[in-house]
Amino acid sequence: MKKKIIELIIELYRVAETKLPDDVISALRSAYEKESNRLAKSILSAILKNIELSEELNKPMCQDTGVPTFYLEVGEKFPIKHELRELIMEATRLATAKVPLRPNAVDPFTGNNTGDNTGRFIPYIHWDFVEGNNLKITLLPKGGGSENTVQLRMISPGLGLEGVKHAVIEAIYDAGGKPCPPVIVGIGIGGGSDIALSLAKKAILRPITERHRDRLVAKFESELLDYLNRLGIGPMGLGGDTTVLGVNIEYAHRHPASMPIGIVTQCWAARRASVTIDSRGNTRWISHREVDLYD
Amino acid sequence: MTREYFLKTPIEEEVVRKLRVGDTIYIDGLVITARDAAHKRAIDYYEAKKEVPVKFYGNVLYHCGPLVKKIDEKWEIVSAGPTTSTRMEYIEPRFIEIFRPRIIVGKGGMGEDTTSALHKYGAIYAAYPGGVGVLAARSIKKILGVEWLDLGIPEALWVLEVENFGPLTVAIDAHKNNLYLNIRESSYEKLKDITSI
User: Which domain does B31 fall in, by range?
Assistant: First the structure.
């Protein structure tokens, strides 16, 4: 079972790095169809061509293969629990050589790169314990360019939703071409500062074709998407109709005196992969319709 | 109308002076990657009168930290799109003054100081779509060398021979036109229209 999980995680890395989820590819194709700016259209065409090549040649679409974050949902009856951390570390070392991944874990004090994408708190793991006998593993390898434009804003609650709207639009304006637009914007509203950012990052795991189940939130997502695309920043910040592919919001209750807003930018290469494995070792892919197994 | 140019390194100053923002270019020849750490070391070496092992003059400086694989002691470039150029903004004008690359390739654009330096020393900044790593790697024909590997694989100087590297968009020309700053100005106007806080 342990060997099977390690192999599955290596496969998760390969799939995430070489195949975008279906919802992201469709959004990029439709952005290309609709784009009226000549330069923007040629950039989107290069992006689509790169996606095809990446999948065909089985090579990571972007040289920045990201810093890996895992989201685990561990069923109470799933046979392996606390060893999962070590299995993820081992699979990450192996995937670095096999996929391959660019070594992206650097010690902030010495500047030393560990060379295998593991390190202190890296890969980071979010744990969730659920009923049943399945383990769900989601991998989010996120690039540095789009991580550098993430913002946390603590606004006056009195500004209300208009204040949230302003904060988000200003953050995407500040980001300009730096996070490799067209981007997906994940927004976390409420909680404390850490919760807002954590929810914002979790929000980008949801397919952009799905709106929030709460109607009020869903409406706000659609409105923000429309406003953000009016900025005209365009693909790579060189102008155009498509700046944002999708806006996903998650929220928590907040302190009466606080309105934290986490704003996470995710580049067009919105890589994520999700799979479940049951206690007998049967697997099912969630993020991708079909996965050709590769050895 | 789009103007297209096919350039071969080393590139003369008068050639890039003719280019304007919005032009499309393709490059054959020598491209050298350098990110934050390599920029800093190159300038430190120059000031300490130590030799920098590569020649940027007239060639292409590429803001890129490639994904590479070593097979039988030989390096292979797997994916090699551009990195965010603004990280080098604080150091780029000095780098241009000393090393005189003719074309800088990156993504996301650069600021006013670099725009002035490009104008003064007769060079341009060209954009390659970010994240388009496999397509970029296809135009790399040969790895001519790698220096300063102690900085880490992404930060090292990779000396590459490219063929038909493009399409690159001239985003900052040698006449102080900066496409990014133009877009930012118009986005700011729209921002003010949309929100009132």
Answer: 4-194
